[in-house]
Structures are given as C-alpha cells and as structure tokens.
Design goal:
about 350 residues, alpha/beta, Spore Coat Polysaccharide Biosynthesis Protein SpsA, Chain A, UDP N-Acetylglucosamine Acyltransferase, domain 1, 2 domains, 9 helices, 28 strands, elongated
Length: about 350
C-alpha cells in the first residue's frame, strides 16, 4: 500500500496567513499540520508517499524534502489547478503504480492514527473504505448514508439537507478500482471532480464500500477558529519538558515544553503551552493553550489561547487572546500622541480592538 497526501489547496479561509505560507505548514503545537498526517502514515507501516502540491509546492518541498527525516520516501505530484480531490487522485495515478492507496488530506488531524483502519482494509479489502465522524453541522462536509451492516449506500457532497450526520473524515482507503470510477464521473456544479462522486460510482457499480467511525477527535484546520481549537486539543496531550533556561524570578506551571535556547526572564507560563527554540520571553505571562514558535521576542505582554509563528516581536501589549499571528509579525504599543491605533494589514485581515484601548 502507498499513501497519497493532498497538499495543493490555496487555503483561502486562512488568509492572510496563507498568502505567504502553505496552509498545510501552519503549526499546531509548533509542528506543521502536514507532519502529523505524514507521521501517522509512517506509523501505520506505509513508507511510500506521494504528495500532491500546487502553487505552494516550493515551500512544502523545502519543509518535507525527500521525507527521510520523517522515515518515509516522498514523491511530489504537481497539480496544475485545484480541480477537486478526484482530480488530484488521477494526477497521482502513475506515481501510485497500481497499488492500493490511503488518501490523506494534508490539513486534517485525527486522534489515534490510522493503524487500525489500515489493518481492517488490508484484511477485508473492499473497493473503498471511509472514515466517518458524527458532526453537528454535516452540511459543511461530504455526508454518508449507511445500511444496517455499515456498508455505504449513498454519498452527498455538502448537502443543504443532510441525509445523515456522518461526515467524511479526510482519510480514504482505495483499491485501484477508484481510478476507473474517477475517470467515469463529470465535474460537479463547482467545476471539480468530487471524490464523493467517484466513491458513489463504485457503489452504483456494485462494488463494496465500507466505513469506520472515528471515536476520538477529528479536526479540520481550514479556518482560524478551527486552527486554534486544534492547537488547544493537541496541547492538552503534551508532556512537560524544559530544555531552555528559566530564571529565578520566572515560574512554569503544568505541562509546558520549553525548547533548547528558549529563555524565560521574570515570566510566568501556565500550561499546556509550547515555547519554541531561541524564543525570549521577558516580563510576560503566557496562559494555557498557547504555542509560540522559534526565534520570537515577547516583552511586557500577556498571551493566552493563541498561536504565534516564527520570528514575531510583541511588545507592551496588555493582552492577546484567541489570536493567530503569522511569521515575522510585529505588535507593539506606542506612547505617541495623538493616541491612535496604527495598522498595516493585508487583504482578508481581521482585527478586534478592546473597548477603552
């Protein structure tokens, strides 16, 4: 079996972060989202991985390389246009060499990995096997309808009136039969070749399609609030590790990771939280569920339930909460008069200013 990881999306829902960064490389607990899926694929015993990339290919290829650092062997497949998941699958057909495939969306996080579902697929070998999760708003996702023994009867992509509450998680397992099914479908109203239509074609052709339900968490990190929730969920499971420097006037409470070269000066950190390598915090309070990446400098400020990416500089800001800061962001307070907020913001930015500030 080989793996196909889809990392070609533009990430429009995470703009402006994704104007300069691939959405699959935005960090959760200071690790790129994409790496979680690659590690779960490796841990399931799959080493041959094809990654579909688009306009952000250079950044993804630089981050992942040949995959050796992650214990996998990576091949890159360039998709000229994002024309749907089934289109990406067909673009990678030659790279997959006629083998069974697990297809993994590169911006999804799944608790517990995929070992068990891979073992079940290998043992039973249906034409396709899906992962499903009960959700409150199934209209946002592809939705499955099952019969009494758990076999898939019908699939609908983002239905206005969902026939069930079982959403398709971003992991699919296929035999090579999926390629003929994908070639047999036509673009949807969105102009895309939908993977749900290709799987439905398997069902209509009498091929067996099975499903497993995800019991743990499944996180789609496509939007800012989703990403912060993913960061919170992953941080809740970390263990304490202090490899950096903590001075006598600082305090570290709970499960906190302080990477090598990081230093706390008159600073309190209440976990769970992660502080990246060579980051310096001085006169700072960091609250729970915060991730601060490498090479940042924070001075005289408070931060909680936030993600701060590499090389940010935050100074004299009373409190940041529920925030996502991209790389090399500078946030500071000024005493200049007349008092005013001075902003330099890219397209699709969002700023909330506290009353009285």
């Amino acid at each position: 079996m080989k793996a196909l990881v889809l990392a070609g999306g533009a990430g429009t829902r995470l703009r402006p972060i994704t104007y300069t960064s691939a959405k699959q490389l935005v960090p959760v607990a200071n690790k790129p989202i994409l790496f979680y899926g690659l590690e779960q694929i490796r841990d399931a015993g799959i080493n041959d991985v094809a990654i579909v990339v688009g306009d952000t290919h250079a950044e993804i290829e630089a981050a992942v390389g040949d995959g050796s650092a992650l214990g996998i062997d990576v091949t890159y497949v360039h998709q000229d246009q994002p024309l749907g998941l089934a289109h990406a699958l067909l673009a990678a057909e030659s790279a997959l060499g006629g083998d069974d495939v697990v297809m993994f969306l590169g911006d999804n996080l799944i608790e517990g990995g995929i070992d068990e579902v891979v073992r079940r697929f290998v043992a039973e070998r249906p034409a396709a096997q899906l992962l499903l999760k009960q959700v409150e708003d199934p209209s946002r996702f592809g939705v499955a309808v099952l019969d009494g023994d758990g076999t898939v009867e019908r699939l609908v992509e983002k239905p206005s009136e969902p026939p069930s509450d079982l959403a398709l998680v971003g992991v699919y397992l296929f035999t090579p039969a999926i390629f003929d099914a994908a070639r047999a479908i036509k673009p949807s109203w969105r102009g895309e070749l939908e993977i749900t239509d290709a799987i439905q074609r398997l069902v209509d052709d009498g091929r067996r399609v099975t499903a497993s339900t995800v019991d743990g968490w499944w996180l789609d990190t496509g939007k800012k609030d989703d990403l912060l929730e993913a960061n919170r969920t992953v941080l809740a499971g970390i263990d304490r590790r202090i490899d950096g420097e903590v001075d006598a006037s600082s305090a570290v409470v709970g499960n906190v990771v302080l990477e090598v070269g990081a230093s706390l000066i008159n600073t309190s950190v209440r976990g769970p939280a992660v502080i990246g390598a060579n980051t310096v915090l001085e006169d700072v309070h960091v609250g729970p569920f915060s991730s601060i990446a490498a090479d940042c400098r924070l001075t005289r400020c408070e931060l909680e339930y936030s993600v701060v990416m590499e090389r940010c500089d935050i100074r004299d800001v009373p409190r940041l909460e529920g925030s996502l800061l991209g790389r090399e962001v500078s946030v500071s307070r000024t005493e200049r008069r007349p008092a005013a907020h001075r902003l330099l913001l890219g397209d699709h930015s969002q700023v909330e200013i506290a009353g009285g500030s």
